[in-house]
Amino acid sequence: MSDAAIERESMEVDVLYVGAGPASLASAYHLVRQIEAHNKKAEQSGGDTIETPTILIIEKAAAVGDHQLSGAVVNPRAIAELMPDFVEQGFPTEHMCTHDMFYAFTRSMTIKSPIVPPMFKKRGYHVASVSNIVKWLAEKCEAVGIEIYPGFAAKEILTENGRVLGIRTGDMGVDKNGKPKGTFQPGMDILAKVTVLGEGVHGNCTKQLIADFGLEGLNPPTYETGIKEIWRVKPEKHQPGRVIHGSLYPDFFTQINGMWLYDMKDNLVSYGFVTPLNSSDPHNDPHMASQVFKTTPFMRDLLDGAELVRYGAKTVPSGGLYSQPKLYCDGAVLIGDSANFLNIMKLSGVHTGMKSGMLAAEAIVDALATGDFSTATLGGYMERYRASWLYQEHMEARNFTGSNDIAPIFGMAVNIPLMLITGGRGLIDPIKTHPDHEAMKKLWELAPEKRKKRQEIEFDGVLTFSKEHLVGFSGTQHEVDQPSHLVVADRDLCATTCREEYGNPCESFCPAAVYEMVDDSDKPGAKKLMIHHENCVHCKTCDIADPYQVITWTTPEGGEGPDYTLM
Ligand SMILES: Cc1cc2nc3c(=O)[nH]c(=O)nc-3n(C[C@H](O)[C@H](O)[C@H](O)COP(=O)(O)OP(=O)(O)OC[C@H]3O[C@@H](n4cnc5c(N)ncnc54)[C@H](O)[C@@H]3O)c2cc1C
After folding, report:
1. Over the chain (567 residues), what is each successive 10-residue block's mean pLDDT?
2. Beta 268-276 vs 126-128: how paired, if at all?
3. Torsion from C-alpha of 538, 542, 545, 548, nearest 10 degrees
4. Closest protein CA for atom 35 of ligand 1
5. Does the C-beta of 203 come closer than 6 Å to ligand 1?
6. Ligand 1 lined by 540 (C-beta under 6 Å)
7. Measured between alpha carbons, how far is 476 from 481 in angstroms, rounded to an integer?
């Protein structure tokens, strides 16, 4: 059925948030509180009050929190500004960080650093599950009248004459050939005076908005893929209050990497491993890297007798200040990871995302007060950002990714220490970075022993596991009979050019075994691409790392995807 032939319902709200992450929820809550403050002042001074706006948050997950994955050790600065009594109000802290540590690991040794680098000092921070944080924040939002619709995926931005009008949600009940099934439900148009994109990392609407409105930052966005596992360890191995960060050497010298370990409640530990996507190696495999790390003596000892509880993966926006797009256009603003607000130097994005949302909310109050939702008023968001601690924090981290991009050894031994004493400047400012996929080398550019895909370790099924096995611990569910939400523009390219030039890197970089080159029964000796979209954990790695940029991550039916309870 052609799109034009579909009759769609539409609804209108004043403020629409896309994505129920910490950035959107903090923003919406702050918006309500700021309107109250505005009206109180107006009543006292005889000024104009703002009519209570309709505020709607839509979320693609079946329930708020289900698509949330983070470390997470959380700087309380933003939540304390949003809700000074957040502890009394039941903020879901697992433990407070009481001892932070930094380790250098090799495959056979564990070396505890006598000093903790400043970016890894986390004492007084809250170890938490971001999934639980957003569930808690969502309750607070609903209590002040904000509507939240889970199971609604924004498929595209609606625009008219250079202004954002709102979004269209995806159609439901379409079969794999694009034909409506008995359960067909057309997507609806949600129109708003202002649309706030809080989609998190590499959002599909955000991508469209930045491209259509020319909002690109100085540098392109860059990313890393984080693999997270939660394990239940033996009680004697559990150390509440412990926060460990570290890196694996000598791997680090060719490609920067990082791990974390945070103790949660009930003998659970959050373990994660982060791998950049600007690798020259076409076989760069974040899942494999995280499994290899678990074979270090430290992890073997920690996980001896432990039980795997959950698995997931998500990309992390690493570009920081110089990758931040223009934050606003007529009718829309960008907040949180959608606008690269994560501070990669500290692997901290919860408090920065929340603060960005709060600053955007203050500009929206001005827009509601004046009835002007154009850049003239929404641009006040940028001014507020520039005057805030959030901007200062980003200035200090602004050349972190660029430094490591030049070479990890240059970054760690020279430029990052210099950045720490020059307020983020370092030797070169700004350092230009490149889209991640451009770094990938063709097979013939590699040393012969590196051309073949390597199975670095055999998975033992106790400590280390295959992607297929681990996806079972992500709670992921997608209807199989629907068009794949992973749209590959040219599948012939996969079977021919990509196979020859890069050896099909999608089989390596995807942490959920979505992409598989299988025998092509129509062409003896040839391979064809099989997409297991039902495995997709919504990490977006494929859309970022594909060297030809022919893979586009789009939203599946609302309510599908991983179940990241506890993550
Ligand atoms: C591996 C990893 C480890 C991390 N560790 C830490 C840490 O220890 N401390 C810390 O402070 N930060 C950490 N972060 C960063 C932090 O989690 C993020 O910066 C933060 O969650 C960003 O918040 P957000 O609201 O911008 O986006 P998100 O939390 O990503 O929320 C976006 C929401 O939007 C929804 N959505 C997306 N697209 C659509 C759509 N089209 N329609 C409807 N809904 C949509 C998503 O399902 C999601 O629920 C980590 C991140 C990762 C990936």
Report:
1. 82 98 99 98 96 98 98 98 98 98 97 96 98 98 98 98 97 94 95 98 98 98 98 98 97 94 98 97 98 98 98 98 98 98 97 98 98 98 98 98 94 95 97 98 95 91 98 97 96 96 98 98 94 98 98 96 97
2. unpaired
3. -150
4. 19
5. yes
6. no
7. 15
